[in-house]
Amino acid sequence: MSWTDEARELAALEPPARAALERLAPMQVPRGGVLFSPGEAVKGYVIVLEGHVGVTLIGPNGRDLLLYEVAPGQSCIQSTLGLLGGDDYSAEATASRDTRLVLVPRPVFLQLLDSSPAFRKVVFAAFAERMQAMMQLIETMSFMRVEARLATLILDRADETQALEMTQAEIARAIGTAREVVSRRLDALARKGVIRAERGRISIRNRAALEAIVAKPAV
Question: Considering the entire predicted model, what is its pTM?
Answer without folding.
Answer: 0.66
